[in-house]
Predict the structure.
Amino acid sequence: MVRAKITGTGSAVPDKILTNLELERMVDTTDEWITSRTGIKERRIAAQGEFPSTFATRAAQRALAMAGVEAAELDLIVVATVTPDFPFPATACLVQDQLKASKAAAFDISAACSGFLYGISIVEKFIRTGAAQKGLVIGTEVLSRIVDWTDRNTCCLFGDGAGAVVLEAAEGESGILSTHIHSDGTYWELLNQPGAGSRNPACQRTLDDKLTYISMQGNEVFKLAVRAMEEVAQEALATHNLATTDIDLFIPHQANRRIIDAIGKRLGLDDRQLFVNLERYGNTSSASIPLALDEANRTGRIASGDIVLFDAFGGGLTWGAVLARW
């Protein structure tokens, strides 16, 4: 059976680190308040002249190098982002140009924090049907530019960066076992960026009303996230008659330590099975899972044959899971 196998991982983050202690001097908050409610200690912030395509390209280059794949061999480039360089062209086309991946079809998808798993789902289907042999999936965000730095409830949560994977057609037991993606648009108002689209175009009013910034009803999102992420994780496992004890590594969306702990408790996972790095990066939306995956891969947390479960939830509302055998 031909599967889509992850053969390379890569990530890239800005050099600038913004700590909770520095945030204390910017907004009415404290390190203790942020840490106790989110688990976040610091986040990366893009410098002037750095864009989502900047980090996406760097992450992609590292993933391609690990896989031993030339950019010219790629059939597909899918970029997940809610902070594209431009409304159009797609950030994926900018990455294609920078990589010189002349053969690849390139496009963006918008599924917020679930975007990377949506991208995996798309490319995996292309590979499994034989329509593509090699694909690149990237999650990249510069959320610092759509954050209201006077709102202590949201500005402490988000950071910038990118992560990428190379997927290749391969025979055998290793590869993506299944993907599971869902959405419920009735909850769209709980987490969104209301301005800068065609409904509320960029103008002085949208700036004055702060409509270009992230808007989030945190408590409601928290409850829905925990339930949806648990359910889709169980859905993925049930598809293959697996139990939570069969999971070697669980890599959830890195949004909030309380959410991760709640899901881990519901699934009965121990600390050995959980991978968490949000204390150093915050919530990087579509970049968070590939960032975590690259770190886990490069630090030896994943071994050949391991069962790895990815789980995400984001604005839309969207959620999903991907189950893989390494």
